[in-house]
From TrEMBL:
The lineage of its organism: unclassified sequences, metagenomes, organismal metagenomes. This is Helicase ATP-binding domain-containing protein. InterPro entries: ATP-dep_DNA_Helicase (IPR050615), Helicase/UvrB_N (IPR006935), Helicase_ATP-bd (IPR014001), Helicase_C-like (IPR001650), P-loop_NTPase (IPR027417). Pfam families: Helicase_C (PF00271), ResIII (PF04851). Residues 108-257 form the Helicase ATP-binding domain. GO terms for molecular function: ATP binding; DNA binding; helicase activity; hydrolase activity. Keywords: ATP-binding, Helicase, Hydrolase, Nucleotide-binding. CDD domains: DEXHc_RE, SF2_C.
Length: 483
């Protein structure tokens, strides 16, 4: 077997170049030259390649966890252990179900010497408090990274609650406040685009990346080619990446260390599935691209702009509030203009108080919106960081396929504390590619054993309890992208 000389330092996992391993080096570089797969309007294409490595004349530097997984723990370990932070004392208590993933992560770092991993748990499981506990366990200077300012603000508020003595710093744009800090909050964009003094990262012993699936992109992955921190913890409710680059963030952070056991007692939900179709060119015209594939973007625009369909959604909303007037409702769309149209109906008909949860809003404005009975939100904002435990109803106003995180937003209340059973109102657009998206959602509902009530427009055609199709040993299932 070839003798490979490996090392670990702030540049990454190093593999010494020799005359005998030139073919191996070439093979590794080929593997770490990645390109995202892009599906645009049902057409498949491959974007330009980009490297996930660094090199000089003497060494090839690869992502830390890739190197450890492939070649074992390095022979020469010079990577900083980070500054000790005794003020990191956890002032809280974890639930037993939260402790299990944390124990798996700690075991992966300490006993297995993997130095990292990903904790992937459903929305509402408490990723933030778990991350703070991990920081307090290792008591090392910690870097927390996310791609959204409001996620960083949420994390800061949680630190103040659970680690009141912690000294909090910040890295954002030109601001570098890291000296004598225990936890430093950084934006992923700044780390990727700007060149900070590499020495500032040597003091960190732990890095936590929220919504870690984002770091696989060409731009965001640059951040991790500029720094290498000893212990890496990735957080995400989903490991899905449609471009096939899940492997990239696993190379940097490590693989998922814990698969959630499907024993969630609070995850029962009613789904009202409304099949909707109108023979109107403004709504259901199947537009095609030059290559003969459906123009999905344009068709979604038509769906969201079709006023009779918007009125249909408003009528369903009114009916829900007529029967159960205190429900707290999340309305989701891919298009802000559809949310604006819905707002007009809600305002003119004086249905209930409402607020927005969309990109670009200040944290203070998001907090105000969270107090309203109806929240108009984009799927993107709801999938990352929307934390309103009192939500119990979601309306899927525009057609999507992947709904795990959207549905998770209404499953946060404990069963013995809630007033209403969680309710999902699903508008199934019964034509073209949207049938596929709708069937994908139905598959997800069935896999979780949710009760599905089938409607054609307003008319109930079948009340269906999925108990027969549900594994009696499974209380709640979370679909991973490998399945």
């Amino acid at each position: 077997m070839m003798n490979i000389i490996t090392s670990l330092n702030n540049k990454g996992y190093g593999i010494k170049k020799t005359e005998n391993n030139q073919e191996l080096i070439k093979k590794i570089k080929q593997e770490l030259l990645v390109s995202p797969k892009v599906f645009s309007n049902a057409a498949f294409s491959v974007e330009k390649e980009y490297p996930i490595y660094l090199e000089n004349d003497n060494k090839l530097y690869v992502p830390k966890c890739y190197g450890i997984e492939k070649f074992g723990f390095p022979l020469d370990d010079k990577l900083s252990f980070g500054v000790d932070c005794p003020l990191l004392e956890f002032n809280g208590k974890l639930r037993d179900v939260q402790q299990e993933p944390i124990n798996a992560f700690i075991d992966n770092v300490n006993k297995k010497k993997k130095l990292g991993g990903i904790i992937s748990v459903p929305c509402g499981f408490g990723k933030t408090i778990m991350a703070i506990y991990v920081a307090c366990y290792f008591k090392k200077k910690t870097l927390f990274i996310s791609h959204k300012d409001f996620l960083n603000e949420q994390f800061i508020n949680s630190i103040k609650m659970f680690v009141p003595e912690a000294r909090i710093g910040k890295i954002k744009q030109n601001k570098v406040d890291v000296e004598n800090k225990d936890i430093v909050i950084a934006t992923l964009q700044s780390l990727a685009i700007r060149d900070y003094d590499p020495a500032i990262f040597n003091e960190f012993g732990l890095v936590i990346i929220d919504e870690c699936h984002h770091i696989a992109s060409e731009v965001f992955s640059r951040a991790f080619r500029k720094m290498n921190i000893r212990i890496t913890l990735g957080l995400s409710a989903t490991l899905n990446r449609k471009d096939g680059l899940r492997k990239v963030f696993e190379w940097y952070l490590g693989k998922s260390v814990y698969k959630i056991k499907n024993n969630c007692e609070d995850c029962d939900m009613i789904v009202n599935l409304h099949k909707y179709y109108v023979h109107d060119l403004d709504y259901s015209y199947v537009k095609m691209m030059y290559n003969g594939t459906p123009n999905i973007v344009s068709m979604v625009n038509n769906i969201c702009n079709f006023k009779p369909r918007t009125q249909f959604i408003i009528n369903l909303l009114k009916e829900v509030l007529k029967k159960e007037p205190e429900r707290k409702i999340l309305i989701l769309s891919e298009r802000k203009n559809q949310l604006k149209d819905l707002e007009e109906f809600i305002k003119n008909d004086e249905i209930a108080s409402y607020g927005y949860y969309v990109g670009g809003m200040k944290m203070s404005d998001l907090d105000i919106s969270a107090t309203k009975q109806i929240i108009l939100a984009t799927y993107q904002m709801s999938s990352e960081g929307l934390n309103i435990p009192t939500l119990n109803t979601v309306i899927l106003a525009s057609p999507i396929g992947d709904i795990q995180q959207s549905v998770g937003r209404i499953l946060r209340e404990k069963k013995n504390e809630r007033k209403y059973v969680p309710l999902c109102i699903d508008i199934y657009d019964d034509f073209s590619v949207f049938k596929f998206k709708g069937n994908k959602r139905i598959k997800y509902y069935k896999s979780n054993g949710y009760k599905i009530n089938n409607y054609i427009d307003y008319d109930l055609i079948e009340e269906r309890d999925e108990d027969e199709e549900r594994d009696p040993n499974v209380k709640c299932q979370f679909i991973d992208d490998d399945e």
